[in-house]
Amino acid sequence: MASANVEFTCYVGNLESDTEENDLKNAFSQFGDVIASNVIRERDYESDYEYYDSEDDYECESSVYMTTRKVYGFVTYKDEKSMKDAVKGMNGKKLGLKTINVQESHSSRRSRRRHDGGRVGSKRT
């Protein structure tokens, strides 16, 4: 029996840069009651340099801009079955134009281990 504080979360990788939380919720709600969806955007700062010859000197102009390097998300369900069904049903599928990678999140595995006393497949005496 699951504790109320155990979360059943799956990781969703390789998302398009414009993916929103509602996009995840809508795509994953077919597997069960989604209680949370989050999108994470890792950003980098990049610089462009332009070199040119002026009449007096060799000059350089630079501009710095932000780019989205990696976009991924998390979808949390009320129960373990929904999460496992989502992993099985969505891994390798397209969301938008990209093929997504879906797997059980590490936090879900840790939460269940703590709940069962850290012993997988055994009962505490």
Automatic annotation (TrEMBL):
A GO biological-process term: miRNA transport
Keyword hit for RNA-binding: yes
InterPro entries in the cross-refs: RNA-binding_reg, RRM_dom
GO molecular function, one term: RNA binding
Name of this chain's protein: RNA recognition motif domain
Extent of Basic residues compositional bias: 108-125
Residues covered by region (Disordered): 99-125
Keywords linked to the UniProt accession: RNA-binding
RRM domain segment(s): 8-107
